[in-house]
Specification:
single chain; alpha+beta; 20 helices; about 20% strand; globular; SOS response; RuvA_2-like
Length: about 600
């Protein structure tokens, strides 16, 4: 590889703000960065005093550098984020998170509906509360709201077609606005109370309910007073159970921990004065990355990734500071449309939030490192048991799932030295074989998986076949025929045969070619690793098969018949009263319908009966 002429390059670089992209000898982008002064920043990479291991490793692979000039440092930050999201360079910190965040939504109807939504839709009028950290947190809140404030949660179509109260009304979890079971003003009052509660004003809600209870009691409206009493008791119970609350309305709290090349970031989501939940993140961090780079990369990708439902809060509390905090404040404020603050110095309640997030980040990192150590120990023992001379970098396991030969699906799951690599999982719909022929299915999936020449990164060191000698022999035949597709690295084939009673711990490992049996004790960590990848393969295959089977169950038998489109299907079903009626109809009866010829009637009859 030709050495990059940094001196000649730096003579031409501008001092303006912008983004730079570094390329290797394969013309792949390996790093993307931004700078307030491009010349000054890029010069630091090639300084004789530069001793940072990550930077030295990066510089050794640079073949060329491209720069894009921007008007401001903030514009450079946005462009850097977009480039990283698009190219995912090797030496950049990457956040692996595709999660969308849900909201509670109170519709702007005559009788508002409270429901879960996955994103904010400006066309849909109403009030959004959140975002929540997970769908489970929203469903838990919905369940709680149903007990506290009896407003409807049913779909509009269900609500509009009711002629009598549903079960929720009988359980006193809805006021039955669909059939006007309660006065309009009472329903609207409950909506107002629910809105105030979701905004974190639980104490004012309780005080108002106490006043109403006393007033109803004085007016001898004892039933109404009892209802208010029950609501007050429920709300007080919720207050007691609320594990942390406060006066802040909207903020995220970031706790950061970084050890042994692994970063742990714990996010607390605080809305309307209540912690709605939390989540831990472990971004992909290149070796020897700086703490400031990890923090800035995480914030950029977390809040600017454009995913539905993720909002920038008005305050973000940080356990650790970084140099570009002021730039991020300006960027987030412009992105959200309101002033956003990033704080690292705080006291009182906010300080307690930060300490809580920091503690959780430390604990999560400790647990993660412990698990990682356990995984590496399992790999080491497996390498020793199989007498391998090189460390295992990638393992794949294949399984077949079907029911009586119907909708056969094969799974491929991948494990590397960090555990399951779900981004590389694949499913294969198996066709063109005798139903129930697992050997043929295994042959087809391997032929399709390895039909092209493999790169060293995607070539597995071990291929596990979930099955006995028959499936293993089929795999041997296919893999040996594709030997040319594995330049310099040929995978080891191992069959995993279940014991006589098919119990965990009684599995038998069969090596390819020699068909030698490898004995492993049931308490061996190496066997536990094999069981884990086998079970994951089994789960993934069954899930795919069920999806395919359910899809067939949802599909009408009339679909797929040549000449029978959506309108003709609807006409046949309406005329004969359903699919059974169509099946019972003769060719003459089918042909009497408008648009159904004799030949088409024969085609339909043949398809439904054979």
């Amino acid at each position: 590889m030709a050495k990059f002429d940094s001196d000649a390059f730096l003579k031409t670089v501008t001092t303006e703000p912008g983004v730079y992209r570094m390329f290797d000898d394969k013309d792949q982008i390996i790093y993307i960065g931004k700078a307030k002064n491009l010349k000054k920043r890029l010069s630091s990479y090639f300084s004789l005093t530069q001793k940072h291991p990550k930077t030295l490793a990066l510089v050794s692979h640079i073949v060329r550098i491209e720069v894009t000039i921007t008007h401001t440092e903030t514009e450079a930050l946005i462009l850097e984020h977009n480039f990283i999201k698009q190219h995912k360079p090797k030496y950049n910190v990457l956040l692996r998170d595709d999660k969308s965040y849900p909201y509670l939504f109170l519709s702007d109807h005559k009788h508002p509906q409270l429901t879960l939504v996955r994103s904010q839709n400006k066309k849909r009028k109403g009030t959004y509360f959140g975002p929540y950290p997970s769908g489970g947190a929203v469903r838990e809140s919905l369940h709680l709201m149903q007990k506290l404030f009896p407003i409807r949660q049913c779909e509009d179509s269900y609500y509009k077609n009711r002629s009598r109260p549903c079960l929720q009304y009988q359980l006193k979890r809805c006021l039955g606005p669909c059939v006007k079971a309660m006065p309009e003003q009472e329903y609207q009052h409950q909506v107002e109370l629910a809105t105030a509660f979701l905004q974190g004003k639980s104490q004012p809600v309780i005080e108002e309910l106490v006043t109403e209870m006393e007033s109803a009691s004085e007016s001898l409206e004892f039933e109404k007073a009892a209802v208010r009493r029950d609501q007050i008791q429920s709300l007080k119970k919720v207050q007691e159970q609320q594990w942390v609350s406060g006066e802040v309305e909207q903020l995220d709290v970031l706790g950061f921990s970084y050890q042994h090349g692994v970063a742990s970031i714990h996010m607390l989501f605080v809305r309307q004065g209540r912690v709605l939940g939390s989540r831990n993140y472990f971004p992909k961090v290149p070796k020897n990355s700086a703490k400031e780079e990890i923090l800035s990369s995480f914030l950029s990708q977390f809040y600017l990734s454009g995913q539905n439902g993720r909002a920038v809060p008005r305050e973000i509390l940080l356990s650790d500071d970084f140099a570009d905090r002021a730039v991020f404040e300006e960027l987030f404020s412009a992105h959200s449309g309101y002033k956003t603050k990033l704080k690292v110095v705080m006291r009182g309640e906010r300080l307690r939030f930060v300490k809580l997030a920091k503690t959780n980040a430390n604990v999560a990192l400790s647990t993660h490192l412990s698990q990682q150590k356990s995984i590496l120990q399992r790999y080491s023992l497996l390498e020793e048991k199989l007498e391998l001379t090189e460390p295992i970098q990638r393992m794949e396991c294949y399984d077949i799932s079907h029911m009586m030969g119907e909708k056969t699906v094969a799974s491929c799951v991948v494990f590397n030295r960090e555990g399951a690599k779900k981004s590389d999982y694949r499913r294969f719909n198996i066709t063109g074989i005798t139903p129930g022929d697992d050997y043929a299915a295994m042959g087809q999936v391997l032929a399709r998986r390895f039909k092209e020449v493999q790169s060293p990164e995607t070539t597995p060191d071990i291929i596990f076949i979930d099955g006995g000698l028959g499936q293993l022999s089929q795999a041997e035949t296919i893999i040996s025929s594709l030997e040319a597709h594995f330049p310099g690295k040929y995978p080891l084939l191992i069959g995993i045969a279940k014991g006589v009673e098919r119990k965990a711990g009684e599995e038998t490992l069969i090596l390819a070619d020699s068909h030698e049996i490898v004995e492993m004790s049931s308490d061996s960590p190496a066997l536990h690793l094999i069981q884990q990848i086998r079970d994951e393969s089994h789960r993934f295959a069954i899930m795919g098969h069920r999806q395919q089977r359910d899809k067939v169950r949802r599909t009408s038998t009339l679909e797929g018949i040549p000449g029978v489109g959506a309108k003709r299907r609807q006409m046949l079903l309406n005329h004969f009263g359903g699919l059974q009626g169509v099946k019972s109809a003769s060719i003459d009866e089918l042909s009497k319908l408008n648009g159904i010829s004799i030949s088409l009637a024969e085609t339909i009859h043949e398809a439904l009966h054979h």
